[in-house]
Each structure stands twice: as C-alpha cells, then as structure tokens.
Amino acid sequence: MRELGLILLSVLLIFATLEVVASHGDQPLSTIAAQKAIFALHHQAYIKVSPTLLGLKGQNTDWVTVEFSSPNPSVEDWIGVFSPSNFSASSCPAPADNPWVEPPLLCSAPIKYQYANYRTPKYKETGKGSLKLQLINQRSDFSFALFSGGLSNPKVIAVSNKVAFSNPKAPVYPRLAQGKVWNEMTVTWTSGYGIGEAVPFVEWGPNGGQPIRSPAGTLTFDRNSMCGEPARTVGWRDPGFIHTSFLKELWPNTLYTYKLGHILSNGTYVWSQEYKFRASPYPGQNSLQRVVIFRDMGKAEADGSNEYNDFQHGSLNTTKQLIRDLNNIDIAFLIGDICYANGYLSQWDQFTAQVEPIASTVPFMIASGNHERDWPGSGSFYGNKDSGGECGVLAETMFYIPTENRAKFWYSTDYGMFRFCVADTEHDWREGTEQYQFIEHCLASVDRQKQPWLIFLAHSVGLFFCNLLR
Ligand SMILES: *[C@@H]1O[C@H](CO)[C@@H](O)[C@H](O)[C@H]1NC(C)=O
Ligand SMILES: *[C@@H]1O[C@H](CO)[C@@H](O)[C@H](O)[C@H]1NC(C)=O
Ligand SMILES: *[C@@H]1O[C@H](CO)[C@@H](O)[C@H](O)[C@H]1NC(C)=O
Q: Which residue range or ranges hold the Purple acid phosphatase Fn3-like domain (predicted)?
C-alpha cells in the first residue's frame, strides 16, 4: 500500500502572505538620479581599477580593486560601475515625446554602486579610499566613476580605466526548466552571440556515455519592447541573446552532463564549463521526490554594493542555504517577485549568476509576480507600476516556462508523484477567462491515484480573495 494515498484528498494551496510594497523603493538603483548627473571632472581626482582583464581562468565572476581619491571628499561620495564602459551622453537618445529637449548627460544607470567610505572610514579626512568589487560577465566592458553630490545630485569627478572579461560574449548562467512533457529538459542561457555570428547548441549525454548535440533557439528584444520607465530609459541595458535548447526523450532518473556551445562562423568552438542534472521521474513513479517552493527572493551583491535599507541581503542567505542543500532538492519553484529588477535590466544577469549553482542543476521553475508583470495599460490585471516598465518581457524571455504562449504565464508540469498547476495572478483568472479554464483542466485532469500530490501555485492572494468575496 502506498501511504501517500492518504494525501489523495489534499489540494494544497500554497500562498505566501499578501504584501504591499512601494514599487520603486525596492530597487537600490532607483535611488540614483542618473538623469540629473553632470560632468565636473577634477584634475586632482582619480579612480583606477585593476586588474584590467578578468576571467583569465575561464570564470565568469571576478573581483577588482578600485582605488580613488578626491580633493573635496564627503561621506556622500560614491562609486558607480558602468557597463558598457562608454556611458557618456553621446549614446543617449533624446526623449521620444519631446525631441527638442536635450538628452541627459548620463542616460544609463550604473549596474552597481557603493559609497566611497564603505571600506575606508577615513576617506572623508584623507580623500583616499579603496574598494573590492565583484563583477560578473555581462557581455560588455566596465568603467567606474567617482561621484560627488550624493545619489540625488550626482557629479562625475573622475572616470577610471576600462576593464573587461577575456570573452565578454561567453555562454553563461544556464537555467534548467521542465519541458512541455515530463521527459524533456530545457536549458536556457545568455550569451553575446547573435544568430548571424555563431550557432548555439548544447552538447549532452548520460553521465559517462556518448554525448550528442541539440540545437538551441535564440531570443532577444529591444528597448521598444519595454513599457515604460525606467526599463525604457536609465534602466535599459542590452539583454544580449537568450538561447534555449530542448533535451528530449530523457531516461527517468538518469544523471546527464551538458555544456553550452557556440560554433563561430570560422569554425571555432566556444564552450561553457560542464554541468550535471538528473532527469525527471516518470509521472506516478513511487520514489523520493523533494520539492522546494518559495517566492519573493530578490538579489544582492556579495561585495555589499547596491545595499539599501538592508532590503535584500537575505537573498544571499537563501541562495547559500539552497546550494548547501542541493543534494536534497530535486526541483525548485520560485513563484514570483524573482529579482526585483524593477526595470533595471542589468539586475537580471546578476540574478541568473547568483542562482546559477541551483538553476543549472535542478529544474528552476518560475511563476510571474507583480514585480515581473504589472504595468498600466499593458494587459496586466493590476494597473500598478511594480515591474518598472518591464511588463513581463524579462521574466518571459530570461526563463523558459512550458506554456504555449509565455505572455500567458500559466502552465502545468508533472514531476513523479506531483502535478503542479502554476497560475498567473497578474492576469485575470475569474470564471469564464482562459486562465480559469486552464486551472480547471489542470486540476481535473490529474490521475490522483498516480499523482496524489496536486499542488496549486500562484504568486499572491489578492485576486484569490477577490474571487472568494465576489
Ligand atoms: C558604446 O559601446 C557600445 C558597445 O560596446 C556601442 O554599441 C555604442 O555605439 C557605443 N557608444 C558610443 C557613444 O560610443
Ligand atoms: C575565429 O574567430 C574568433 C572570433 O573572431 C577568433 O577569436 C579566432 O581566433 C578565430 N579562429 C580562427 C581559427 O581563425
Ligand atoms: C545572512 O548572512 C549574513 C552573512 O553571512 C549573516 O551575518 C546574517 O546573520 C545572515 N542572516 C540570517 C537571517 O541568517
């Protein structure tokens, strides 16, 4: 007898608390008034960064030392990291709604920032300081600027040399997700190689067995896909290319290895490191299956930068704990409010880097939340500005989800004795809607004898209560 039969009756509704948070207060980069910045270079101020070439051992995370000095030091002085390194006004488009207005001097927010006195408390007296900052491979080079005037009236007083990873276009940050059928795993990753430049693929096979190659599809998007500020303006950053490959007809429970590859037009191969995953169990298979479900993760920087109200430091603790427990996790669900990029696109790369050890090893399934999707007039159920103008495009492109249309962020997936029905609280799910039909079908079509664990997942309870009270 299967003791799990006892759980036949339970449909689990997993919701975390409904929490109302101010939309822009969540993103540290939104505290910087980038569009008000001016250049006030001072010949006695300097900022220099070493080493200049990063990732020499093939790694996609590296540390730099920043040394700087100002003749008029203040506790408000800060260091901004820019990528691409050429951050001056010449690349700013004039505002589309008013072409007569001069474009701002600084049209992109830094990808991270830190106060000048963070590691050097005496900076205010001596005017000299240094910092260690962590950089990840984000497809472009970097430069650093020393600012006075605080975050609200930024004045660039010195600009550093440039630094870059040895291959900025390298394939990075693989994330696994269940495919549309139980025996298919999808691998999604980011690179700087467009389809005209190189052919993306995954080389994979059973651990120790003969590898094969599977092709990958490539997606990207431009600034016009963003719905508003800051994603369209200072938060915009080229997303590079996002590739997904479909590894099919997997054998249940089998350990596979894989690596990401690109064939350049001159025949040269560019490879990632090698990764491993275990294929999904057969639906209904009676075996140990361990599932982690959480939401509102956020991201933070290991070097202490971008810190604001201690808001998301805990996301590093969560990440570390999950990595420590990885041998006891078979599949993970992060059900909305994924990284709180809120329209600052650089943060998505940093998030995929942060969760890489988890997402490259077990299926990392996401759901959509207000901070991914909501934007007035964009089709989201709620008309708030919580996505910072992303209106779902980032979440729908950076991660694969097994749905016909990723803009309709609801899906089901089978994992052994589990059936997951993942709903999209940012779209209407009331009776009569397309999503309602999906939920009804997902719940009704499961064979409860084989899959006693029927799990309903959704990001927030707001709409759920609307439904109950209707
Ligand atoms: C800055 O660099 C990017 C890519 O490195 C390039 O596309 C862009 O044209 C450059 N902008 C300026 C103003 O040089
Ligand atoms: C192929 O092109 C890449 C990128 O342009 C270059 O680094 C590499 O040296 C080239 N290889 C050969 C064999 O020409
Ligand atoms: C999170 O990690 C930091 C640094 O390791 C530690 O100081 C802090 O106590 C941790 N927080 C929690 C809630 O465990």
A: 47-167
93 lines ligand 1 (CB under 6 A): no
Which residue range is the domain that position 109 belongs to?
A: 32-165
Q: Which pLDDT score is estimated for 336?
A: 94
**pTM for the structure as a whole:** 0.91
Last residue of a domain, one of 138, 165, 192: 165
| Co-location of 8 and 36 in the same domain | no
In one-letter notation, the amino acid at residue 13 is L
CA separation for the pair 100, 296 (Å, rounded) = 41
pLDDT number for residue 94: 62
Take atom 14 of ligand 3 and give the residue whose Cα is closest.
Answer: 317
Q: Tell me, what CATH number does 59's domain have? A: 2.60.40.10
Residues 43 and 15 placed together within one structural domain of the fold: no
Is the same domain home to 285 and 211? Answer: yes
Measured between alpha carbons, how far is 235 from 422 in angstroms, rounded to an integer? 29
Same domain, 253 and 140: no
Does residue 361 sit in the same domain as residue 431? yes
Q: Is residue 317 within 6 Å of ligand 3 at its C-beta? A: yes
Per-residue confidence (pLDDT) for residue 223, from 0 to 100? 94
Ligand 1: centre distance to CA 88 (Å): 10
Measured from the CB, is residue 90 less than 6 Å from ligand 1?
Answer: yes
Give the closest residue (by CA) to ligand 3 atom 10: 317
Kindly give the number of the ligand 3 atom that is closest to the alpha carbon of 317: 1
C-beta separation of 421 from 189 below 8 A? no
- Where on the phi/psi map is residue 15: left (φ > 0), alpha (ψ -120 to 50), or beta? beta
Distance 56 CA to ligand 2 centre (A): 18
Question: From the CA of 309, how far away is ligand 3's center (Å)?
Answer: 15
Say how far apart CA 448 and CA 464 lie, in whole Å: 24
What pLDDT, on the 0 to 100 scale, is given for residue 15?
Answer: 35
Do both 142 and 224 map to the same domain?
Answer: no
For ligand 1, mutation pick of 82, 83, 85, 86 (most atoms within 8 Å of CB) = 86
Same domain, 206 and 334: yes
Kindly state whether residue 419 falls inside one of the protein's structural domains.
yes
b or e along 371-394 (b: 16 or more beta carbons within 10 Å of the residue's beta carbon)? bbbbbeebebbbeebbbbbbbbbb
